[in-house]
Amino acid sequence: MSNIVILGAQWGDEGKGKLVDLLANRFDYIVRYQGGHNAGHTIVIGTKKFVLRLVPSGILHPGKIAVIGNGLVVDPLALHEEAGQLEAAGIDVQRQLCISNRAQVVLPTHRLVEKISEAVPGRVAIGTTLRGMGPTYEDKAGRRGIRMGDLLDRDYFEGAVRALMADHITRARAFGVDDAVDVDAIVAQYLEAAERLRPLVCDTAALLAGAMKSGKNLLFEGAQGTMLDLDHGTYPFVTSSSACAGGASTGTGVPPTKIDAVIGISKAYITRVGGGPFPTEALDAKGDLIRNRGHEFGSVTGRPRRCGWFDAPLLKYSAMLNGFETMVVTKLDVMDELEEIPVCVGYKIGGVVTTEMPSTVRELAKAEPVYEVLPGWMSRTEGISDWNELPEAAKRYVTFLEEQTGVEAGCISTGPERTQTVRRAGSKFEAITQG
Ligand code: GDP
Ligand code: IMO
Ligand code: MG
After folding, report:
1. Residue 435 above 70 pLDDT?
2. Mean of per-residue pLDDT scores for the chain
3. Is 408 in contact with 327 (CB distance < 8 Å)?
4. Ligand 2 atom closest to residue 303's alpha carbon, by position in its atom list
């Protein structure tokens, strides 16, 4: 066994939660390394559905330790609410959850600051989740953020948080964002939340180092996706954290030398929520069909997800950045009713065909996808768990994705539940997850 990263290979919502839940059994610690409660990871177990935002999905497995690493931005009130929901479902959060004392704290006034960029005329609206993620990471980089350890230090916290909120309010007012803020009430709420979370906060880098020393295995659970990565994604239409594999190290304090493999999760098609260029977006009835069959509505904000065709250059770029040689192709069943399925194999930009990812959104917006159209299978694949039972055209479709990306599809998901999964014998995926 080893330490592996599971991450989104596209623009998020690829089905990371399902995969983490599927594989968590074989790991001891399941570790989030970036993002915050902008994430929404859905796990379906029988009639029960869980949507996890901050807490790693592995917590649903009794006895596993779920770790919120230093790379996250944590809204203590949102975390408290989520922990309460999990406890109500019978999960032993007090024993299973650990929170880094170095994770950053999200304040309500971070959301106020976010309104400046998202709602003030003349600014480029990213279409964020409005959870205060970006402004909290800004404060982290600006070295004025408040960390979980600071929140627990009552003497320090109150003065620091008042100063930071005053700064946020001043900036918001200057841009005409004049929502009422009850600073005293916020301070009191945060101090109360701090006491409830105190037993769970620790030095998680030291915790994980000790765990590895005693032979335990770690599963890193990425949030968002490669194309939303702050550095490598479709900047500025990205999130504010490092969603790529490198983030697993900086976001947890686990050295890169201890990470053994990465698995990319990709839908059989592609979706994106929020603004930004999207070369293969299907703005027609077929896009609607995917959205409806795939229930492609945001698990955090409920926004309809933009839907489109599998983008091979994008996936290749993602594999290059993250170093994955195997991918999980999810939601194959969603495509059951399509007679023909286009796959983007290149971008035509200014008359030239390329498979490279442009570095600017201006250039990406000019990209016309070059499609190869494959026959659909027009039969039900939902729930199939054996490769040989998939229709020939579906196998051909998956094989075509492999050929175009150079990445093995070691696992295929045919439904939201654990059992609705094809694991391919002899694959790298099996070697990584079973070895
Ligand atoms: P995440 O953010 O990557 O964890 O993905 P989300 O949970 O936001 O979105 C994925 C959605 O697809 C969830 O509602 C899952 O239950 C669902 N899902 C995952 N895999 C499959 C699949 O293979 N087929 C279908 N039909 N739904 C799936
Ligand atoms: P999971 O982990 C899909 C998108 C937002 C917006 C951009 C920036 O469930 O895959 P932010 O609030 O992070 O500053 O918004 O990123 N976004 C996601 N899209 N899945 C997610 O998470 C996302 N988290 C953020 O829609 O375009
Ligand atoms: Mg999601």
Report:
1. no
2. 96
3. yes
4. 26
Q: Specify whether 423 is located in the same domain as 334.
A: yes
The residue-averaged pLDDT of 136-145 equals: 98
pTM for the whole structure: 0.98
> Are 173 and 244 part of one and the same domain?
no
Residues 297 and 423 in one domain: yes
Indicate whether 85 and 179 sit together in one domain: no
Q: What is the pLDDT of residue 430?
A: 97
The residue whose C-alpha atom lies closest to atom 26 belonging to ligand 1 is: 415
Same domain, 219 and 181: no
Q: Which of 181, 196, 211 is the last residue of a domain?
A: 196
pLDDT above 90: residue 9? yes
List residues, by chain if needed, whose CB lies under 5 Å from ion ligand 3: 13, 40, 299
13 has catalytic annotation = yes
Give the chain's domain count: 3
Q: Kindly report which listed range (64-68, 302-306, 351-355, 395-399) carries the lowest average pLDDT score.
A: 302-306
Residues 162, 236 within the same domain: no
Q: Are 221 and 20 in contact (CB under 8 A)?
A: yes
Q: How far is the CA of 208 from the centre of ligand 3 (A)?
A: 26
State whether residue 66 is helix, strand or coil: strand
Q: How confident is the model at residue 346 (pLDDT cuts 50, 70, 90)?
A: very high
**Catalytic (active site) residue 41:** yes
Neighbours of 90 (CB within 10 A): 7
Parent domain of 189: 104-196
**For residues 64 and 57, what is the distance between their CA atoms, to the nearest angstrom?**
10
Distance between CA atoms of residues 181 and 185, nearest Å = 9
Q: Which residue has a Cα nearest atom 28 of ligand 1?
A: 416
Residue for token pair 């599963």: 219
Name the pLDDT band for 1 (thresholds 50, 70, 90).
low
CA distances from 336 to 308, 320, 382, 417 (A): 15, 30, 8, 17
Phi-psi region of 176 (alpha: psi -120 to 50; beta: other; left: phi over 0): left
H helix or E strand, kind and range, residue 218:
strand 218-221
